Amino acid sequence: xxxxxxxxxxxxxxxxAMCDFTLLLLTFFIMATKFKPEEPVVVNTPSxxxxxxIPEGFILITLDKTGRVFFSVDNLNAxxxxxxxxxxxxxxxxxxxxxxxxxxxxSIGVPFTMLASYLSATPAQxxxxxxxxxxxxxxxxxxxxxxxxxxxxxxxxxxxxxxxRIAIKADADAKYPEIHKIIAxxxxxxxxxxxxxxxMKGVPPGTALFDERHATAAK
Length: 219
Known about the structure:
This protein is α/β, with parallel strands linked by helices. It has helices at 16-32, 76-89, 96-104, 112-120, 123-132, 148-159, 176-188, 208-218; strands at residues 47-48, 59-63, 69-73, 166-170, 195-196, 199-200. The protein has one domain. Strand 2 and strand 3 (69-73) form a beta hairpin.
């Protein structure tokens, strides 16, 4: 009996639609991605075993090893409202370009008397100015005139959802009195819940936390 030859079908697949979809997806991510500006100072944070993540929309207070305090907010919409409010309250006379410079920038580490000139500088100039910035005036009170950090925090919390989470990023070599100023400022504002940003290190074997994490991972 003669063998019946089955017709061969082409195995080629038209990838045109897939290429178009991939290109559109790549374009979307490029256009939608927002790159965060670099922090104005390098901070070597201490290590801890915590794995908690700080959610978006937080308030970041940075303290470098010389005791300078910087302030930033991780919410672009709130930043526009914050700078508008500060411009009105402090009668700074900021232009729209200067306000946008604040929204696009990273942390602020200059007093209100220097804010307009700082925001008038280009990003490259601001990076140079940050090296000599005095930091925000901070003490252990909640007085807005002498403790400008307290004013920034109060204004930001008004425009952030649920007041925003507060994170402190302090250099491991920072002196305790400088850290105490920040904590005392939060206490004066009746803020008793905040986080310290640290570098994660391994949990020492044999500790209760080590056993707990391995038991959880095994489930």
